[in-house]
């Protein structure tokens, strides 16, 4: 049984970058989870964040020890929900959570749709110019959920695995998308995953059509 800490945030201005809702605060007690996420949680750039396929962001709490070790001078930054997550747990990582996994959480049912795609806003948030690149390289990205059925949730409701329809872990999906050379067979494996997000489906189909991997710089560094 994995009991989550729960966080929501409002859109706020950012010096040197566009507004963001990455800054979250902990919520205790029951909160409504709708098809678009936790009540009161906001997303600034809906083209890249939020929407039905990306309603919740989950980041493993155990990764914070790694980031503290990497950046000891900024150690005070590295505790939940520094990565803008809605859900923080111990015991669930990219290695043991799988693409398409379906979980019961309180009254709600949620499904893993994609790894979280690190973006340049993390660089501003931490004042570390290549944080997004490092996250992608090491694979400590977390993942996103869609809400299959809404309902009331809380930190006292554990995440219970109901179904595991795929054999691709979130870690393997990260490897296929960002660490491996072009491999159409692996993209077809990802596309076959039940519940894969529309944006990841589009990315894999575009790669297969164009015969190449897209440039990551715009997403990771904010420039093409």
Automatic annotation (TrEMBL):
Domain MOSC: 25-162
NCBIfam families to which the protein is assigned, alphabetical: PRK11536.1
Protein name stated in the entry: MOSC domain-containing protein
Taxonomic path: Bacteria, Pseudomonadati, Pseudomonadota, Gammaproteobacteria, Enterobacterales
Superkingdom to which the source organism belongs: Bacteria
């Amino acid at each position: 049984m994995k009991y989550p800490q729960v966080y929501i945030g409002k859109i706020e201005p950012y010096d040197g970058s566009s507004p963001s809702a990455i800054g979250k605060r902990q919520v205790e007690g029951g909160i409504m989870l709708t098809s678009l996420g936790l009540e009161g949680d906001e997303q600034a750039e809906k083209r890249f964040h939020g929407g039905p396929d990306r309603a919740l962001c989950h980041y493993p709490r155990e990764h914070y020890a790694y980031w503290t070790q990497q950046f000891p001078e900024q150690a005070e930054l590295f505790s939940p929900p520094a990565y803008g997550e809605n859900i923080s747990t111990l015991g669930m990582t990219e290695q043991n959570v799988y693409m398409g996994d379906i979980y019961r959480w309180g009254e709600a049912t949620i499904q893993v749709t994609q790894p979280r795609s690190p973006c340049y806003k993390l660089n501003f948030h931490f004042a570390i110019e290549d944080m997004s690149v490092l996250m992608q390289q090491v694979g400590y990205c977390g993942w996103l959920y869609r809400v299959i059925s809404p309902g009331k949730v809380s930190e006292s409701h554990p995440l219970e695995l109901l179904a595991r329809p795929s054999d691709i872990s979130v870690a393997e999906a990260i490897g296929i998308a960002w660490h491996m050379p072009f491999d159409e067979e692996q993209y077809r494996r990802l596309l076959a995953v039940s519940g894969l997000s529309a944006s990841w489906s589009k990315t894999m189909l575009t790669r297969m059509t164009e015969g190449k991997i897209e440039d990551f710089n715009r997403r990771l560094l904010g420039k093409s």
